[in-house]
Structures are given as structure tokens and as C-alpha cells.
Amino acid sequence: MKDYLLISNTKENKISNFYLDLVSSHIQKSTNEQVDFRELSSRKAYEWGLSSNKYDSKLKKIMSDFQSNYGIDCNFIKTTEKRKKKLLIADMDSTIIKEESLDELARQIGKEKEVSFITNEAMNGRIEFKKALEDRVAILKGNSTDILENLKKNININHGARELVQTMNMNGSITVLVSGGFTFLTEYLKELLGFKHNHANTLQIIQKEFQKFEITGKVEGPILDKKAKLEYLNKYVKKYNLNYKDTICVGDGANDIEMIKHSGLGVSYYGKSVLKKEADIHFNNTSLLGLLYAQGYTDSDIIK
């Protein structure tokens, strides 16, 4: 069984022969073997296959320093027999989209500072998610649902999201968007990007006079939190008769910890420090295409 060392940077396309030779020399010194790299994406992503018992903690330390010095993500990936995962579960806010959706709704009504403070505290695990959600939604009370439609029009999709979902779909995987945000946006993104399933919270909305619809400031039903995200991972593993090794989960904050800890490959995507401690691999200089490279996909395999 092989492990893999993946180096990647999609921001600057900066991985030159100098970096490749440097990594190869470090590997040779650690393993006493000549290991050839495989190009996954020109100047963006490369991997080396390593026998799991042939490299040591010293190589990991060297590559950690390499990452800090050169701004190139370095991840050691332990693989099973089949590298390509059969189930993807992705967080939405600051993962599939650039924005925190509640912060953006608050921006439209002049309450961004108040809401973003609560968001940041929750993302770093300093406020319990349920309370943070209820407090932020309460601030939206009395506003027209027009702000929801405006958000959908102005949302920014993170680079590689569409390719990630389409490529995994094409290879027979189940793709699921699970968010502590709201269904009005996850359902929109499901259709836009091609996710097979989506789950999120539901904003309570009432109809006022003149056919106007208004946000009540409350959330309907049980709140989808980190526990619920793990429950959806469990649900889909059971539904499709999968092994947890067949799963890959990605997120950026405290609310994603449980599903990432229990997945076959847990990915921190520009994650908060509280999540980084739990994730298997980390991307801080690489787009969502990194999740495909981590599974051994090359650019020629990716559905554009």
C-alpha cells in the first residue's frame, strides 16, 4: 500500500523544476530510494508515491518547513486500495462559496459588523453553533425576502467547485451539500453546480399584505449543526452501502469537525485553526481542485 505526498498551489502556478527537484531530493534522503513524481496539473500539482514504511517524521517536518517557506501546500495522504472516493460531503459557506451567507444578508440591511462578529466566534468554536445561528437570524427579523434573491444573484462560487462536483458525479460518486446555512441557497447551488443532494436549515417566512414575504427572525424545525453533519455522513454511508474509507468531506470551521474526523479523507479548506487540528489534509494555497488531485485525478480527468 502506498502513501502519497501531494504538493499543490493553484494561486500562482509556481511549482517549477527547482521545487520538484528539491522535494525529490528530500524524499531520496529520507527513503534511500529514487522516487519519480507524477504531474497532476502543470506547475500546480504533483505527487510522489511513497511506501508507508519507508519515510519518517523527519521528512514530514522538512515538508512542513517547505510549505511555510515557499507557500506551496504539502500533504501526506494515506490511501486505501481505491483512491477515488464514492461520497463527497461539502460545507457551503467559505467552502463552496466565498462568502458567509448570513454575513452577506446582514450587509444588505446594514448589520454586517454585528453578525460577522458572531459568525467568526462560532466558526472558531467559541460560541455554540445553535445559539450563534439563532442570534444572527433574529437580526434579520422584519426584512423582505428580496434580500435572499439578491444574495443568490451576487454569490461567488469558489474556484474548482463546479469541476469538483461534476468530475465526482461523472465517476459515479454521490455528491452532497450540507450546510448550517439555509435551504434557499443550498437548493440554488445544488441546481447550479450539480450536487445530487442538499441539506440545510430553513428560514421561517410569512406572507404579509400585498403579497409581500417577510423573514420572521426564526429558524424552522431542528437546527442542522455539526452533529447533524455527521449524521448525514452516516446516513449516506449506510444508504449506499459504503465504507467510511470511501468518503471525503471538506469544510472550514468548527461546525465541520465531526464529519471531517469521521470521513475517509477530511479536508480543511482555508480552515480555522480549530478545524486544522482535526483534518487529514489542508489547503491554504490551492483551490477546490485540490480535492480531486488528492484522489489522484489529473487535469485531463477533470470535467470542465
Question: What attributes characterize this protein structure?
Answer:
single chain, 304 residues, alpha/beta, Alpha-Beta Plaits, 12 helices, 39% helix, elongated
Shape: elongated
- Relative helix content: 25-40%
Calculate the mean pLDDT score and round it: 95
Number of helices: 12
Care to describe what's here?
- This protein is an alpha/beta fold and 304 residues long.
- The chain has a domain at 1-79: Alpha-Beta Plaits (2-Layer Sandwich), CATH 3.30.70.
- The protein has helices spanning 17-31, 57-70, 101-108, 112-123, 129-139, 146-154, 161-170, 183-193, 226-239, 257-262, 273-276, 289-293, and strands at 2-8, 37-41, 45-51, 73-78, 87-90, 174-182, 197-207, 213-220, 247-251, 265-269, 281-283.
- Strands 8-7-6-5-9-10-11 form a seven-stranded mixed β-sheet.
- β6, α8 (183-193) and β7 form a beta-alpha-beta unit.
- α4 (112-123) runs antiparallel to α5.
- The protein starts with a strand and ends in an 11-residue tail after the last helix.
- The mean pLDDT is 95.
In short:
This protein is α/β, with parallel strands linked by helices.
Show the helix and strand layout.
Elements: E1 2-8, H1 17-31, E2 37-41, E3 45-51, H2 57-70, E4 73-78, E5 87-90, H3 101-108, H4 112-123, H5 129-139, H6 146-154, H7 161-170, E6 174-182, H8 183-193, E7 197-207, E8 213-220, H9 226-239, E9 247-251, H10 257-262, E10 265-269, H11 273-276, E11 281-283, H12 289-293
Parallel strand pairs: 5-6, 5-9, 6-7, 9-10, 10-11
Antiparallel strand pairs: 1-3, 1-4, 2-3, 7-8
Helix pairs in contact: 1-2, 3-4, 4-5
